[in-house]
Amino acid sequence: MPAPVPALPQNSIFICYRRSDSEEMVDRIYETLSTEFGPESIFRDIDNIPAGVDFPSYIEDSLRGCPVVLVFIGREWTSCVDERGTTRLQDPEDHVRIEVETALALRDTRVIPVLVRRASIPAEKELPETLRVLRRRNGVTVRGSGPDYRQDVTHLAATLRRAVNEVLEKRRRALGEGNHSVAMISPTSEITRQTAARSWWEPWLGRIKKGTSRARAYARVYPQRAAGVGVGALVFAWLVWKVAHPTPAPIAKPDPRPPETPAPIAEYVAPSKEPSIVTPTPQPNSEPPVAWWKYLPPNLIPGRIPSDLPPDSPPAVTLDPKLVGTWSTKVTTPNGYMTFRWEQSADGNYRVTGTWSDAGTVDTQDGMMRRTSSVTHLTGEFPYEFKGNNELITKDPSDPFGAQSWKRVSSPTPKASTKEKSSTTRSKSSDNYSAPRSNPPPDFRRFVPRGFPHF
Question: Which fold has domain 300-413+438-447?
Fold first, then answer.
């Protein structure tokens, strides 16, 4: 655990005053506060500034370590003049003005105006532009009479103790419970702007020094955590180096053995376009065979339909002859592309294959297309239009992808001649006989039992 922060560490209170305005009252308050907090807790220029140092630089460095700055304002604080008759507060080189400007530029330093000798906060026109923000700071009044003085100084001491503890706690949180003597400077005053106008590398050097001091303070308070952070940083640096410098793959040595002659590749024989389905002959004293093809999806068995399935009656449809043929489209989705292929026959039946499959009937009239799906048992009606002979636009409002553009892949296949039809006729007594497919293929889903898994 970190060491407890003292109530008022060394140089916790900075006293800023003008001797010709309120020296006697400042001496009296200084003695009282020294008895309360100790003389080492209060910084005063007459006691703490060594001889021969640069006054502005030393004051700026001292203010950075003081959590609270008391600005004593008397009745002549704004009207004091120098030997030339110029108001001192309007002089940029005035020491009191430099101290107040520097204190106001520190973000985590509490500046408290102390009104003595029945003074009040100066008017805005009496203050330089860099000191007008002092009017927004809440002040404390200290009267000079006996009972009033004791009451006001007691109130001032309580205010100082509370303010010092709040500022130190704020600095502790900002520095990760590290060094409490570092203050953040806001570039708002002329002195801060003059200090910032240095070489380009000095701000970066200051940030590096500040980060180093914070790391050291954190390591002193939490040595185990600091060791863990250091080990983690080394492991991360090693991983980055390994990614930037991957291990090269070993060079394969040539095989001294002679190369083997590859085995000949068997020639691929395409299956028949119209596979026949043979019904097994039932054996004696056994159950009749199950017509298993009734429970398969319609797209699984291409070719002819088993002869024992009841044929469907052809639907009475009116079809635009320009739709007959094969069409294809490509749909853009957030995850890529989907392609579909639409095969439309002259009897109104259609089949869609691609990312998903569908089948059913299409009826057209007066530029409207009515589509009835035998898979989903849904019906939709929407307009369509042709662009030339090889492009079709469908505007289905139920399509989540909007209007689709279909490109013609092939025209309808011409019908076979009478001689070809007669040559393909077979005897009805054959086991593999199937009638010509003049009717549309039946909906196999009607024969699938409820609860059977869909392919």
Answer: Lipocalin (2.40.128)
